[in-house]
Amino acid sequence: MNQTTDTIAAIATAPGTGGVGIIRVSGSDAFSIAQRLARKSRFKPRFAHFRSFYNSEQQLIDSGLLLYFPGPNSFTGEDVVEVQAHGGHVVLNMLLSEIIRLGARMARPGEFSERAFLNNKMDLVQAEAIADLIAGGSEQAVLASQRSLQGEFSAEINKLLKSLIETRVWIESAIDFPEEEIDFLADCELRRQLSMLNQSLIAVLKKTQSGVLLNQGISIAIIGAPNVGKSSLLNALTEEQTAIISDIAGTTRDVIKADIIIHGIPVKLVDTAGIRESDDPIEQQGIERARAIQASCDVILLVYDGSRVIEQLPKAKANELVVLNKIDCLHADNQTRQVDVRLSAKTGAGLDQLKQHIVAMVTGGDLAEDTFTARQRHIEQLKLTQHHVHLAEQHLSHNIGELAAEELRLAQQALNAITGEFTSDDLLGEIFSSFCIGK
Ligand SMILES: Nc1nc2c(c(=O)[nH]1)N(C=O)[C@@H](CNc1ccc(C(=O)N[C@@H](CCC(=O)O)C(=O)O)cc1)CN2
Ligand SMILES: Nc1nc2c(ncn2[C@@H]2O[C@H](COP(=O)(O)OP(=O)(O)OP(=O)(O)O)[C@@H](O)[C@H]2O)c(=O)[nH]1
Ligand SMILES: [Mg+2]
């Protein structure tokens, strides 16, 4: 039996206890396993059969529903059987053991989706979107993953591929019939096509970047001196009393993390110990941690206490925002301070502006309504495509058609790797192994 025709089985529902749990079986023996497990010779396709399931010692394990999806019209494209039983993990594992005894083997994580991909039920982008849909950290992220799953992102890639292939055909024929059109390669039309391709690549890359943002979310660190109101800001943003706040400097020592959603972007918010010179070894450790967090987060909020005289404000780096807190009791000195955001963690004034600033910073504008989700892997392939198209343009401007054609071939290969037209087993292994069991 080779890897793609043996029969796999897994519990598809989340580990733990639930009302109902589902076991999925896929492969050429799925039907005969169902016959023996449910003691029935015929199953109406895609129909819920209420049956009793016994183990090898003729003990009743459970009664439940059995569904048979004959290939190729199934999720994986192979014969699929689903056993829907009571959702206790022992019950489900007893049923799974019986199914394994009857000839299936345990599925690897993502193996059902991998088979769906290998049987052309979906492309790689769509298979990845299933995992992203399940992991989706906000409603917007879920809706965006669903758009990728429905093929919207793939359609964008396929449009790029179509115009790339048209350009390749043009160049290849110019090379093959040089005597007919001497200046074919120097043709404006070809230049125009390549420059349009470049524009489309830039547009798709931009959408893909916001897709990755929605998918992966961002981390935001709250950094500043003691007592400036960092923990109060965390509490205001989470709308909960997440962290202890007090007017004693050095209240927060550990790193405190909270998950929030800003304009649909899943955010990991990190509150840190106030940074100052300290002799207290515990506080020192907290400050060290704060510095490490500052170095690793995507966005840094540098918080200042607006109710006091501030010696000097820093020059914010590209991923930093200078936040002036306590504007409800602003010191006269700070009236004209140049900062990115003014707010009061106490009254909530300015919090919306802070959120807008953060979103603008990470998206370079705002998230589009109709975003799809994407992955870093897709961005890398799109950039690689851009690189090869750029080299093709250069070769063309020196009238070296063969080299331009070769670069466009490589560009096409880079695009194809996104939807999985050409992929290595290593890449597939890497992608699918990060899926849940039973997916
Ligand atoms: N019980 C159960 N619920 C589930 C799943 C499942 O496998 N089992 N799914 C698992 O991910 C999702 C639904 N995805 C599915 C996708 C395709 C097919 C399927 O049978 N496709 C056939 C026929 C399509 C049709 O009749 O229109 C095909 O593509 O040929 C089934 C489930 C979510 N809910
Ligand atoms: N008036 C006013 N007081 C605030 C505001 N934000 C925080 N405070 C007060 O400032 C004091 C310090 O707040 P914290 O949130 O504990 O400050 P912190 O920066 O986390 O301090 P450490 O954990 O010690 O580094 C508390 O007494 C808060 O009530 C604000 O917007 N306005
Ligand atoms: Mg604090």
Automatic annotation (TrEMBL):
One GO cellular component term noted in the UniProt record for this chain: cytosol
Principal subcellular localization: cytoplasm
GO biological processes: tRNA methylation; tRNA wobble uridine modification
Family from the record: Belongs to the TRAFAC class TrmE-Era-EngA-EngB-Septin-like GTPase superfamily. TrmE GTPase family.
Swiss-Prot/TrEMBL cofactor(s): K(+)
Presence of keyword Cytoplasm: yes
Binding site for GTP: 227-232, 246-252, 271-274
KW Hydrolase (keyword) present: yes
Amino-acid positions noted as binding K(+) in the UniProt annotation, renumbered to this chain: N227, S246, I248, T251
Protein name (database record): tRNA modification GTPase MnmE
Subcellular location: Cytoplasm
Domain annotation TrmE-type G: ranges: 217-363
Residues involved in (6S)-5-formyl-5,6,7,8-tetrahydrofolate binding: R24, E82, K121, K439
Protein encoded by which gene: mnmE
